[in-house]
Specification:
This protein is α/β, with parallel strands linked by helices. It folds into 3 domains: 14-147, no CATH class; 151-273, Rossmann fold, CATH 3.40.50; 288-462 and 496-523 and 563-617, 3-Layer(aba) Sandwich (Rossmann fold). Helix content is 47%, strand content 14%. It is built from 21 helices and 22 strands. The strands form 5 sheets. Strands 10-9-8-11-12-13-18-22-21 form a 9-stranded mixed β-sheet, sandwiched between helices. It has a 7-stranded mixed β-sheet with strand order 3-4-2-1-5-6-7, sandwiched between helices. The protein has a two-stranded parallel ribbon with strand order 14-17. Strand 3 and strand 4 (204-208) form a beta hairpin. Helix 17 crosses helix 19. The chain is elongated and about 115 Å long.
């Protein structure tokens, strides 16, 4: 008698053999099952009392039946599916294949053998036997496969609490039950619909609502919770996250609804909760056809490509299949990493990483002349308010001079569209950075009327997680044990996810005819201290207990809150949700000439002279103190 290790080794070799010759094996198995079902149908018809006539009839007709049924099963690709994942659609395909096989077989029997030769009831019995045996065999294989999943008996498997008993939660539970790659063991569901409480999904109980999370987590000894409710609002999601954290269990989240609809629900998609998941509004739905219409097959250039917004623009543009994508940046290492990332993801796309300083107009023109981009996204800019307060000439040189250089070159070399990324800090500015971006807006607006290029600006607020912004700074402070520093308890900002910001910039580019300033809907502003508390909580710590929050003071150039448009600007909605357009841009004449003069004078101006020149160009610029001393330490955040 074989001992267990020998038996397992033999079975493993058999399994490998079957996998290697899987298609041939399944075709032969189908032939065997079809033959057995046929013989069984005759036995049932004859009350299991066969005679010689039975054997003759079966022998004559069986080859024809096997050819027809195996061919029908192959036509419906039933030799290709993985049986361990069999589900309702597979059973439907079996019914279709069996029905088609019967509809072909019956006329052939009549043609070759005559109707009196064949017991008519066998047709129906054979049809039912094929559906039962072919479907049942697959279901048995799936059951045996799932019973072998290591997580069921793995002492190291995490006990999983699934929050959400809808389609997404059920799909996630099934994935955990059948997967051999992820060691999670579903132990209970939580759902807000009381009518589901007391039921079960794949044998896993729906144990209660979110109000019962603490009790359920304790009773079922849950190690981790996953929120599998992709359609809930941000406020509901925040409440579920807080309930899980109060229960003392780590919490993760399933992807967004589009990914669920794409059929990619799996543990490989489960991730940590991000602050963007808790923003107080649903994400925008993009008109991808309109974006594709002006990007697919075109030559596209992105300045500041290695920056936060620029790199996300690059990733999304690549999805629309441009003929050529030029990544222009002055930062060598980030550009190299981005070029490698995009090339790996889109190996067939023409991609060029180009080192270039947008301030150097000669260099920019050489790039434009060489690649002749049809669409230009200008995301290059100095963005950090405190640094620009110390170096106003650099803000003017890059944010104004760089914009003038890029938009002039785009027009000169025949670009069809130019989109500049602006900021809410350009509205009623009190900082050098904001004033410089406001001048850039005025500059591109004036230049939009002098040529065939569609020139426009897109204005929005802070982007969650951008380089050296509040979120990564807070996370670094939390990782080091705190404290988290916030400038003022009432300070608030508009926030948007990186993905959504880039998508809406692309959408605005499809809208503009030239001269527009578009404004992205940022929802309600969020208090910085609330964001700090959320990040601490998402790290599994308690604000003010585990990690302290301390207040500093506003730095020069910082506002308590930002605005997306001034009270002198009127806005109207566009045909796309979450994008508005200014209908009465402030008339400012001679901006181009005055910018050229400022750039000529810049090497001779000190800080106060630069600020005075900005004030002359932007009358509503109200400098907020001057300027941080070089030795003064940095503080966070605003």
């Amino acid at each position: 008698m074989l001992n267990p290790p020998m038996t397992r080794g033999w079975l493993r070799r058999l399994e490998l053999f079957i996998v290697r010759y899987r298609t041939a094996f399944i075709v032969l198995l189908h032939a065997f099952v079809v033959a057995e079902a046929y013989a069984l149908s005759f036995l049932i018809r004859l009350d299991f009392d066969p005679d010689r006539e039975f054997a003759i009839t079966v022998a004559k007709t069986l080859p024809l039946l096997v050819v027809v049924r195996v061919g029908s099963l192959a036509y419906f690709r039933l030799h290709q599916g993985l049986w361990r994942y069999v589900s309702t659609p597979d059973v439907i395909q079996i019914v279709k294949a069996t029905t088609v096989g019967s509809l072909i077989f019956v006329p052939l029997i009549v043609l070759f053998f005559g109707i009196d030769f064949f017991p008519r009831s066998v047709f129906l019995i054979d049809w039912a036997a094929n559906v039962f045996l072919l479907g049942g065999l697959r279901i048995v294989v799936r059951i045996l496969r799932e019973r072998r999943v290591p997580a069921r008996g793995d002492p190291l498997a995490k006990r999983l609490l699934i929050v959400g008993a809808g389609d997404a939660g059920a799909a996630l539970c099934r994935q955990a039950l059948i997967s051999t790659d992820f060691h999670f063991r579903p132990v209970a569901f939580i759902d807000e619909d009381p009518s589901t409480v007391g039921t079960s999904i794949f044998g896993i109980p729906v144990a209660g609502t979110s109000a019962d999370i603490r009790r359920i987590a304790t009773n079922y000894r849950a190690d981790i919770a996953v929120i599998a409710a992709p359609t809930v609002t941000a406020a509901e999601r925040r409440r579920l996250v807080e309930a899980c954290q109060r229960a003392g269990i780590p919490v993760q989240i399933l992807p967004s609804t589009p990914e669920i609809l794409d059929g990619v629900v799996s543990f490989s998609r489960v991730r940590d909760v991000d602050p963007a998941d808790l923003l107080g509004r649903p994400p925008a739905r993009l008109d991808k056809a309109a974006i594709q219409a002006y990007l697919k097959g075109r030559r596209v250039l992105v300045t500041g490509a290695a920056g936060s917004v620029g790199s996300e623009l690059v990733r999304q543009i690549a999805e629309f299949g441009p003929e050529l994508l030029v990544l222009l940046d002055h930062a060598e290492n980030p550009l190299m990493f981005l070029e490698s990332e995009i090339q790996d993801a889109f190996p067939d796309m023409r991609l060029v990483g180009q080192i270039c300083d947008v301030v150097n107009r000669n260099s920019v023109e050489k790039v434009m002349d060489r690649y002749r981009p049809e669409v230009v996204f200008h995301a290059a800019a100095h963005k950090h308010v405190p640094l620009m307060e110390r170096a106003p000439a650099e803000a003017v040189s890059n944010n104004i001079g760089g914009t003038y250089s890029v938009v002039s070159s785009a027009r000169k070399f025949g670009a069809e569209a130019f989109v500049m990324v602006s900021t809410d800090k350009a509205v009623n500015p009190i900082s050098v950075m904001g004033a410089s971006k406001r001048v850039a807006e005025l500059l591109v607006h004036e230049m939009a009327g002098n040529g065939g290029t569609r020139i426009m600006s897109v204005r929005f607020g802070n982007v969650l997680g951008s380089n050296a912004s509040v979120v990564p700074i807070f996370r670094r402070q939390i990782a080091s044990g705190g404290p988290v520093t916030v400038t003022h308890p009432q300070m608030e900002r508009f926030f948007m996810s990186m993905n959504e910001a880039a998508g809406l910039i692309l959408q605005a580019g499809a809208l503009g005819e030239g001269g527009e300033t578009y404004i992205l809907d940022m929802g309600d502003p969020i208090k910085i201290v609330s964001l700090a508390e959320t990040l601490i909580t998402l790290s599994g710590l308690a604000p003010y207990d585990d990690i302290d929050i301390v207040y500093t003071e506003l730095r020069p150039g910082e506002k308590m809150s930002e605005e997306l448009y001034s009270n002198r600007e009127e806005i109207r909605s566009s045909r796309y949700e979450k994008i508005s357009v200014i209908t009465n841009p402030e008339p400012v004449s001679g901006v181009v000439a005055r910018v050229e003069q400022l750039l000529d004078d810049l090497p001779r101006l000190d800080n106060l002279g630069v600020v005075a020149a900005l004030k002359d160009l932007v009358p509503d610029y109200e400098p907020d103190g001057l300027l941080l001393a070089p030795s003064e330490p940095e503080r966070t955040v605003g």
